[in-house]
């Protein structure tokens, strides 16, 4: 019998938010699942933290890991089974990556390398790769002013209501 051919696959893994707080351990867990089934990882990176449209295994938020890997075609079912049995991986979607060319993979690798370098230079943790910290400080200032203005309007309405009741 001929050896099964290895193909390029794209996998999107939804991780439990509590487990994904330790991103290196979560990445290592997914990497272990893939390597256990002779998968050669081309790219594995954090994609996003998101609020889910509906609860999945009781969780309302999740972290997505995006992976591109070469694997034998007969091992995809086993990878999917291991993901389903894992308590840390809540969902997994694995598809053939026929739509992905070599140039897209190179661009993704380059983007990941640039993001890691920028985070290291800023001294940020890997979870804060996109520079969200700086944006939050300016947004927070604007958010603090809005509740104060709302309280002021509420107090003005209360005074006006009292005056109207006295008249």
Description:
The chain is an alpha+beta fold. The chain is built from five helices and four strands. It has a four-stranded antiparallel beta sheet. A hairpin with a 2-residue loop joins strand 2 and strand 3. The longest helix is centred in the C-terminal third of the chain and has 35 residues. About 11% of the residues have low confidence.
In short:
It contains five helices and four strands; from the N terminus they run βααββαβαα. It is an alpha+beta fold and 167 residues long. Mean pLDDT is 77; it is low at 126-143.
**Largest sheet features:** 4 strands, antiparallel
How many beta-strand elements? 4
Order of helices and strands: EHHEEHEHH
Proportion of residues in helical segments: 40-55%
In round numbers, the mean pLDDT is 77
Topology at a glance:
Elements: E1 6-16, H1 17-20, H2 23-36, E2 40-56, E3 59-72, H3 76-85, E4 89-96, H4 102-122, H5 132-166
Antiparallel strand pairs: 1-3, 1-4, 2-3
Protein traits:
single chain, 167 residues, alpha+beta, four-stranded antiparallel beta sheet, 5 helices, 30% strand
